[in-house]
Amino acid sequence: MKALVLAVLLLAPETPVPPSPASTAPAPRIAVEPASFDFGRVVPQRTLQRQFSVRNFGSADLDVERVSTTCGCTAALLDDKVVKPGGSAALRVSFETRNYSGKVTRSVLIRSNDPAHPTVELKLQATVIPEPKK
């Protein structure tokens, strides 16, 4: 009987052991706060500005490789390209309403070394209405 139990134990498939948190490689984790912003009702020919926070919730440095926009009417400037774990960097965004009319949506794209989310999209929105006549 002992030989049978020993044989079963030796022939049984090895149960996989999940990796412990300590054995997981450190990685950055990006978040933009707020993730989107609505400027509301605005008039044409204005420059709107808003500051966002790029945060690193991970356990390794977050390297921001590129910040781009989907339109020449939008500009974005990041204070620091490297964000330490637990840290944040200011992202200043400006949006020109030009001669637009109606609902306008633009994006800021942030490319980083976050393995789970290499590109994060920040959405901006405004409703451009005609300026009231005087």
Total number of domains: 1
User: Which structural class should the secondary elements be placed in?
Assistant: mainly beta
Radius of gyration using CA atoms only: 25 Å
What are the segments in which pLDDT stays under 50 over at least 5 consecutive residues?
3-20
**Percent of residues in helical segments?**
under 10%
H/E topology pattern: HEEEEEEEEE
- Beta percentage is over 45%
State the CATH topology. Immunoglobulin-like
The global form is elongated
Report mean pLDDT, rounded to a whole number. Answer: 88
Q: Say how many strands there are.
A: 9
What CATH first level would be assigned?
Answer: Mainly Beta
Number of helices: 1
CATH homologous superfamily (4th level) name: Immunoglobulins
Q: Can you give keywords for this protein?
A:
single chain; 134 residues; mainly beta; Immunoglobulin-like; 5-stranded mixed beta sheet; 1 helix; 9 strands; 7% helix; disordered N terminus
Summarize the structure.
The chain is mostly beta strands and 134 residues long. Helices cover 7% and strands 49% of the residues.
Task: Please explain how this structure is put together.
The longest helix is centred in the N-terminal third of the chain and has 10 residues, at about 1-10. The protein has one helix at about 1-10, and strands at about 30-35, 35-40, 45-55, 60-70, 75-80, 80-85, 90-95, 100-110, 120-130. The protein has one domain: Immunoglobulin-like (Sandwich). Mean pLDDT is about 90; it is low at about 5-20. It starts with a helix and ends in a 6-residue tail after the last strand. Strand 8 and strand 9 (about 120-130) form a beta hairpin. The strands form two sheets. Strands 2-9-8-4-6 form a five-stranded mixed beta sheet, with no helix packed on it. The relative contact order is 0.25. About 5% of the residues lie in helices and about 50% in strands.
